[in-house]
Design brief:
- This protein has 167 residues and is α+β, with helices and mostly antiparallel strands.
- It has a single domain, classed as 3-Layer(aba) Sandwich (Aminopeptidase), CATH 3.40.630.
- Helices cover 30% and strands 34% of the residues.
- The chain has a seven-stranded mixed sheet with strand order 1-2-3-4-5-7-6, with helices on both faces.
- Strand 6 and strand 7 form a beta hairpin.
- Helix 1 packs across helix 2.
- The chain is globular and about 40 Å long.
Length: 167
Amino acid sequence: MTGHLQFEVRAANADDARAVAESRAQVAAEGRWILAEPPVDIDAAMEVFRRVLDDDTAHVVVAVDAADRFIGMASGFDQHPGPVTFGMHVLAEHRRQGVGSALLQSILTWSRERGTHKVVLEVWPHNHAAIGLYERHGFVREGLRPRQYRRRNGELWDIVEMGLELV
């Protein structure tokens, strides 16, 4: 933890479904940081989250503040024999306070415990804060996929691929 924010990272559970879905919708509404775009179907997102919790190849953690309010989440999926794929989001008011680093560290620890050889992720090229976070944890840029994702407005956005070898 850094700054004045006190929080903990813990394993996600089914009771977190609504907070995770609503936070996904909130971050999606910013239109810049995650693949999802509004409107996010909260009920559908809750159902997907619950299914992921039942997946033994997935690791899902949430960050909560001292009052147990949701502030961020991360998920990793073991693609054995391939790498773990990773994604996360943090609510805007809690960014740059160590939450993303703590969530990422949980995914890396889980990945190492599973004997995974590599963790990979995708990030928008304009998300300089996230790219910096990943680089501080040892991730390297492995490629750029031009015009990889079509946004609802028709724009085609590039994606940066990043990876961290664990063994």
